[in-house]
Amino acid sequence: MSNTGASGTETMLSAGGTTARFNGVRLQVVRGRTTWTLPVRALRSAEATPAGGLRIRISGPPGHAAGHGLGAAVELRAPNARSAQAFLAHLTDALAATEPVADGHTLVRVEQRQPPRRELGPRARVVVRIACVLPPYALLLFLLGLVSPLDAGTAAATLVAGGVLGLAGGITLWRVARRVHSLWLLRRRGVGVVGEVTGYVRIWDKGGHLWVFSRMSFTTVDGQRMRDVPSVVTVWGFADRAYAGPVDLVYDPEHPGRASRPLTVGFAFRTLLLAAVAALPTAGSVACVLPNLPF
Asked: What is the band of 47 on the pLDDT scale with cuts at 50, 70, 90?
């Protein structure tokens, strides 16, 4: 197969778990997560094999091949005869016009691609945290019911109600506390850069932009590119600044995935509102659980 672009024809062979590409200047061989790149002048010859594949010899002493792992020659399989012939003709033409170096093994470049990191998304992480908290939380309430001075029916009713109210208020207060903690860390060690708003996350349709969190892309001072990082702080006002355009932001150099727009009055109002709302079921939970304490 071949691909014709602005720089000429690039031929390709793919069979037996190996993919080879040649663009007239360099040969690239990919096996699994390893990529070898060989310039034409590192190659001595190319020939067809009796099995219908290709054998490409690297110039230089065979003993030098141990450094890159390809060996003294690259053996390539082909999906069919015409594909092998096209690849060989392209490679042979380039070899005829190029003088090989004395030791082509020193020109072989090897790259190892790291396996992809499998990380849970934000929602999945929340589910995992809740799943880790619920069993010990339920066990604690069950043990409290065993030592409760109230009768069994009253203890069960108050502890179930208190447990549900505690979850409703506690989860919200925990999320508020996480954002406040993130802002404290950003104020303490944050580095300011200019980024670009690339999207948004809206968690409620009411209240203008009080519930809109920008997604921001930026480059850290050490050159790391961060994409679609959600802001800790929401947008203030009713303009469309949440959706596009440049933005001043601060990120945590120890955890670049933590970043935020400047703190706004709207975010402070939203945080206080959520904390006040969450305090109501939390207070109800305390009122239900306290009578069950054995002291």
From this structure: very high
> Over the stretch 57-86, which tens digit does the pLDDT of each residue have?
998 876 655 567 788 888 999 989 999 999
User: DSSP states of 72-108 as a string?
Assistant: SEEEE--SSHHHHHHHHHHHHHHHHTSPPPS-GGGG-
Q: Which residues contact 177 (CB under 8 A, 6 or more apart)?
A: none
How far is it, in rounded angstroms, from Cα 126 to Cα 170? 13
Chain centroid, CA 69 distance in Å: 31
193 contacts: CB under 8 Å, gap ≥ 6: 218, 219, 220, 221, 249, 250, 251
Q: Are 46 and 56 in contact (CB under 8 A)?
A: yes
**Is 282:165 a contact under the CB 8 Å cutoff?**
yes
Q: Which of 71, 87, 63 shows the shortest CA–CA distance to 36?
A: 71
User: CA angle 223-244-218, nearest 5°?
Assistant: 10
pTM, two decimal places: 0.53
